[in-house]
Structure formats: C-alpha cells, structure tokens
Amino acid sequence: MKKLSIISLGILASVQFANAQVISSKKWSDIFSYNNVIVMKEDQGKIIAAAENGLFYYTISTGEITKLSKANGLHEVGITAFDYNPQNKIGLVGYQNGSLDVVTPDGVTYIVDIPIATGYNGSKKINHISITGDKAVISVGYGVSIFDLKKKEFNDSAFFLSGVYQASNEATIVNNKVYSVTDTGLKSHELNTTFPVYSTWTTEMPGAFTQIASEPVLSFSSATTAYVYNNGVATPLSQTFGKVKDLVVNSNSIIVTDQARIYSFNTNGTFTGAVSLGEECNTAMTVGGKMYGGTILSGIKNEANNTFKPDGPYFNNAYKINLYGENQLLVSSGGRDARFNGPLANPKNPSFYYFNGMQWIYPSYFIGKTQAFNILDAVANPSSPDEVYATNYTFGGQGIYKMKYNANSKDFDFTKYYDLAAPNAYVRRPVGLTYDDQNNLIATIAFMDTGSIAIAPYDKAADNFIVKDLGILSNGIQKALYYENLLWVPMPRTNNFLVYDYKKTPTNVSDDTVYLLNQSSGFAANSNGTVSVAIDKAGDAWIGSDSGLRILSNAVSAIKEPNPSVKPIIIEQNNLGEELFRDSQILQIEVDAGDYKWISIDGGGVYYMSSDGQRTIKHFTKENSPLPTNSITDIKVDRKTGKVYFVTYNGIVTYQGDVADVTSNFGNVLVYPNPVVYSNFKGKVTIKGLAEKTNIRIADVAGNVVHSAVARGGYYEWDLNNQRGARVASGIYFVLMTNEDGSDKATAKIAVVN
C-alpha cells in the first residue's frame, strides 16, 4: 500500500537552512502536481524524482513517498534540472530562474549568484546538472559553470561565445574533462587554467546534440541517434529513434527514452530490449532489474502499469478555487492575458481539478480532446453537489459545460454543453458562475456581439442560460459576488463597477436594475478597470481596481443612493497621509472569520490587513514565503479551520491562519509558543481561539496587570512588553479574558524565559 509522508526529503537528516533565508514553516503546505517527472536518480532501492515544483522520494520496498517543495525546504518552483550523488548524499536542484538549491543531510542551501556572461540577455534557465564526486557541471544558455559541492560555490565558467552565445544543452565530467553537447557539436575541455577560454575548447564531433551521460561509458545523442564515445570514436547504437527525450548510463546499461518507448543497451552498445509504459516519458531507469519511467502525466510508472507519486492536481496551472464541505475543492486551471482579454495560451488545454476529500481527480473527458479548453471557473450545485458547471473562455469553444461526478469511477461524465447562442468564435465568452442563497445559478459573460457584457441566469425548467446584454460598453467582466440579493461585479476593462439587482427573479430579466459606479464615484482617474471585490462583516464593499483600493461603506444601502461614493483608505506614512495600495492592481480580496483582509497585489504578493486596513499584519511574497509567484490569482479562506488557499498559475499553496470559526464566544484558546524562551524565539506570542471581541488582561503571579488590550477577530499577538513598553521579566503570566458582554470567560498561562 502506498504511504505518503509530507515531510522533508528522505535524504535529509533534518530540514535546516544554511546561508539562506528560511521561507517555509509548519504552517505552510503545497498542493502541487508531481505528475511531470523530469529527472530520476536511485539510491539503494529508492528513487528520488524531480518534478516541476518539488522533489519526491519513493521507497520501492515499502511504498513510502516523501516530498520536498518550497512549502517545506526548497526555495523556488520551476525545477528544470536535478542530480544526486548517492556517495556523498548531496542533491543539486536547478530552476527556471537560474538559481540552485544544494540539498544535503545537513539542510538546504540557496545559491542565487550563478555566473552570468557579460552581455547575455537570454534565459537563465538551468538546462542540466551532472555531479561527479564533489564537483558539478551546470549547463546554461551561455555555456557551462563548475560548482564545488563542498564549498557550495562556483569555480570556473566557460562562456560559449563565438559571435553569439551558444547554449550547453547538457554536460558531464569524465576523468577531469568536461564534455558538453550543443547545437553545433560535442565540445570538450580539460579542467585546467584555459577552461574558461572558449576558443581553446575542442569540437569532438560536429552536429546538433541534445543528451549526454557518463559513468562508466560516455554516451551522447542527437534527436534521433545515440552514440557510445570511446577514444575519440563515436559508435552509433543499433536503433534509431523518433525523438530522444533522455539518455541514462549506469554500471551495466545505456537507457534511451524515446517519445514512444524505452530502449535498453549494454555498455558496448548492443541492443537488449525495449518496453512501452503506455504513455510518454521524460526519462527512465532500472532499479533491481526492473524498468521505471518518469512520465509527463502520471509520476513514476513501472512495467506493471503502477504509478507512484504524491497525490495532487493533474497540472500545476491554477486560476480560481472554490471550497465545498469537508475539505472538497474545485480548481479551474485556465487564465486570461492582455488585460483580461483573450484566453491565456496554454498547450496543456486546461480544464478543472476536483479534490473529493481523499484524492485529486481530473476529468478524463478533457484528456486528448482536439477541442480547446480554457476553464475560468468551476462550481458545484449546492443542492446537488455532484453536478458541476464550468465556463470555457477559449475562442471557438466558448460556452458552459455541465458535468456529473461519478463516485464509482471517480470521474466526471459529460452532461451538456451550452453554447450561449454565440454567433462566432470570439464573442459571448463566459467568465464566472455564482449561486445565490436560493441556489439560482448566474453566469457573467464577456465580449458580447455588441461590445458589451451580459448576465446569464440559468433557467432550470428550460435547462438553458438566458443571456441578457446589459448594453454597457466594456467587454471585460469578472465573476459576480452574491450579497444581500445583489450581484457585485467588477469590470476589468473599463473604469466601472457593476451592481445588479435581479429582484429575486433571475429568469425574469425584464424588471432588473443596473447600478454603475465609475470615476465620478471616486475611482482613480488612471484606473482602467475594477478587478476584485469582497464585502466585510460591516457590510462595506472593498473594491480592487488596477490602480488602487476603494471602499463603499454600507454598500447595500449606499448603492441605491443618487450619488454613491467610494473612498480610498488613508494610512500614515512618515507622518504623512498616504493612500493604501495606490496605483497597485488588486487581484483578489478575501475576508476571514475575524474580518481581517487578505489582499493580493499583482507582482506584490499578499497582504494580511487589520479589519480597517490601517495595519499590515503579514506580508507574504515569493521571496519570504512558499508562494510560487508574487501574482496570486485567487485567495479563499476556510472559515471553519482558518486555512488559507493561495492560487497561482504556478501552483497552489496553503497557509494555516490563526483565525478560525470566530463567534461572540471563546473557542479552543491556544497560546504559542509556550514557554517563550528568548534564545529560541524573539517574536510575538499568539493567542488564538478568542471571541470576536475579547478584553484581555495579562498579570504576573503577584496579580499586577502588566498588559491589557482589546482583541478583535479571534486572535491576539503580545510582544511580551509591559505597559511601559519594556520586556517583562522571566516568570509565569496569567491571561484573563472576557468576551464583549462578559457572558463568556477564558484563562491561559504563559511562561517567559529571558
């Protein structure tokens, strides 16, 4: 039976972080896809596999799977290269952005200062890594660099410049000599003083070559032919290939992974057999005489058609997420570009993913289809949760799909396609789907035939959508937020915001009322559109535009006034008033159970704000946290557990927040860390499980009150200072708490060791 352990990679004794900022903690976890295995290495019956966003370690004898990602040790996503030396237990991870992680039994070290050739403006992607002893040769778009694994620093680099920079596709070290395959030939040079001088390199064999491997024999390949190289002679293997994906050499075999099959040869180049694993592989290897493939879509796969990987979505692409019931998720994986215009180009033909509480499911209906898909939203019917509607935004196949979850097959059956009566391939593109409190389904439609936008309620009796053109020249529209019998709809391509009153009769579109906020209502003059909206516990609408944040106070009543007005939040910076998030594009706003705000800024990460927006509690970026990118396309909070989901085009991560299920009474009050030992922890002490409004007094053992405060939103952080602003002495402190009306009480103790 497969066992999954979400802890540090098995090659680590512990996850420590040397010479690098610690960006992960137990509060974070990943929801990454580990399907696309790029590289595999073996260590005593165990396979270490590198996927796009992390490593996983599969023990063949026990079935145990352990994963290591940015959520618990690594420092980046977008893995493009990996190698591992079983002798010294060191792994080296290369990324799309040119950085490296050195993974050792003592921890993970982040390397960001890879040498870059002067004048080189191309990709920094790490193409390939090959470890020999304590040295690694790193292949990049401008040549090769030698990395010292013991010192964790770079030695010499050779920049392949002859008129233009030439990439090293792959390279390896054999007997103190570097061999590199390039688009113009097999190149070589001794590791000596002239190594950095490209003009002193030797072209062993001209041609366009892509793969290379060594130990015990040197082998390399073009797209269709593989060779054994010995004493300056390249002997072609007896088979030709459709396209060589990878080349692996071990003590007794050469393994060539082709698009369709995996071929085996002995080290003399004699063909010994071929297998097919039923799908395309990136790489392959033998362990214990059995073949294992690193697939594109199924993780590690063996000849018996068994797959091994951490469970996760089909791909890492994610755009929007919806939460249901006990840990059930629907994730749409499409996207838009050019200011919320066309469907984001994606060769993976993105659909939606479903997590049923136990495993991730990708509808087989969407696999292998020539029909283009770009699903922007997927929602479950509250009255029949196995019924899912999804919006396809792509050109030529735009429309809404109805799917039915089949619990027996753990798959989705196609039920119906609604084409929205689109007259051509470029109009009537559905964006979002929203259910109201009576389970009425309403879609938002962009790019109507008239250049307008539309609202499309679902008519249950007719089993169709009624498309109502709103006559508002905008083209762009977002998913609607339902609140108090109204639809609150951002318009990302004009400086407007729509509120739609359908009079509780969604299929009767003749009596509806449209309210429109625009620049005269208070939006920034330089704004080109509104992007996001959330409504907090006070009933205020927080509206994010591409040029800042605006608040519509008492939104339901204000929107019906003759001249409703939105206002910015003004905060104090250096004794001067400053508009919060001025000129920033607000991608998403989410309100948690304590009325705190999670706000994502395009390119700026995520801010966790106080309920009034005056105070930044946390600011997460890809540099200081496991976020895969600084542009978060969606945020959802599970108010019952406090878990926060951050959705990006590069994958999903979660953060265990401190605010959960906040009511007027106390929950399970927890203080951490406790005891507080100054030598180990210098931050604030968190008290969570509080009432929505909590009066707090903290006293010493003599009964003297050293600190008092009023906490709002279910949790509080104490900086361990007394009323005079000085740190309290070592000792035991009692936390005395009452809710707002004094009807509920709670106590706790904190031990402080300075």
From TrEMBL:
User: Where does the UniProt annotation place the signal sequence?
Assistant: 1-20
What positions does the domain PorZ N-terminal beta-propeller occupy?
49-201
What keywords sit in the KW lines?
Signal
Protein name per the record: PorZ N-terminal beta-propeller domain-containing protein
* Pfam families linked to this entry: PorZ_N_b_propeller
Q: Which domain of life is it from?
A: Bacteria
- Origin organism is Chryseobacterium paridis
